[in-house]
Specification:
- The strands form two sheets. The protein has a five-stranded mixed β-sheet with strand order 2-1-3-10-4, with helices on both faces. A five-stranded mixed β-sheet has the order 7-6-8-5-9.
- α1 runs antiparallel to α8 and α2 packs antiparallel against α12.
- The chain has twelve helices and ten strands.
- By secondary structure, it is of the alpha/beta class.
Length: about 260
């Protein structure tokens, strides 16, 4: 398969999974799970394993954690929320919109990723990015929108830690969520971007470029929490429990997530 075909297949996959779509309506007893877009590949695989083991189906709606929180407040028909930043679950719980305070299910990581042929070299210290900014040779660089996407917020923090935030802002291309940021970063129209480690590890994405993991202490932790909403039914409850079992945890680790201590 050629590089261009793989790229088209990756972008088609993002669209097919509805990453930019609004909330989905459940059909019959299939619950809709609102999942942060860094979970695209991991939770899609987990949902398939859940269906194979239990015979029960869930519908995945993937997007920005902040946007999902707003939609839940507006009455979106989700039964479970898997946030990329636990703060959003805590706020919804304080407002009486979740069944309880939820469960910490993972901690995420950031990477700088560049498409094949880019003038930018991915390095954990972002040294080459700093060099290109200083030389005036960087044109576009993608991150998720820090106004509502946790991976965008943490990307901003990492860039600020490296002293690059002010200089890079004119060059930023903002994705609605981290999956769209990955699309922008690897489209060939940008030198690269900061995306989720979990996306970079997926074969569909890894084939499109190279990446380096950014030090986790350059930004606040990406503590990811999930919670059942008040209208959750038995299938959503079963999937929530399945996420805490070994088969799901093993998939999460394979996609680069760090599991909470004691799990």
């Amino acid at each position: 398969m050629t590089f261009q075909i793989r790229r088209r297949a990756f972008f088609a996959g993002l669209a097919a999974l509805g990453l930019l779509a609004g909330p989905l309506l459940a059909q019959d007893d299939v619950p809709v799970i609102a999942a942060a877009s860094d979970l695209k590949f991991a939770v899609t695989e987990i949902a398939a394993a859940f269906a194979a083991e239990t015979g029960m189906q869930v519908e995945l709606s993937m997007g920005s954690t902040g946007n999902f929180a707003t939609q839940i407040r507006q009455g979106a028909p989700f039964q479970m929320f898997m946030a990329a930043d636990e703060r959003f679950v805590a706020e919804l719980h304080a407002e009486g919109l979740t069944r309880d305070a939820g469960t910490l299910y993972a901690e995420g990581r950031l990477v700088i990723m560049v498409p094949h042929g880019s003038a930018l070299t991915p390095d954990a210290a972002l040294d080459n990015l700093a060099e290109m900014l200083a030389a005036g040779t960087l044109t576009k660089f993608a991150i998720a929108n820090p106004d509502h996407a946790p991976y965008g917020m943490r990307a901003q923090e990492a860039l600020a830690h490296r002293g690059l935030w002010d200089a890079i802002q004119p060059h930023l291309v903002l994705g609605e969520n981290v999956s769209q940021a990955a699309q922008f970063a690897l489209s060939g129209n940008a030198e690269g971007g900061i995306i989720a480690y979990s996306l970079a590890l997926a074969p569909e994405v890894a084939d499109l470029g190279e990446f380096a993991v950014i030090p986790h202490d350059w930004h606040a932790p990406l503590r990811q929490r999930m919670a059942l909403l008040d209208n959750a039914g038995p299938v959503a409850e079963a999937f929530y429990a399945y996420m805490q079992r070994s088969p799901a945890r093993e998939i999460m680790v394979r996609y680069g997530f760090v599991l909470p201590e004691g799990t």
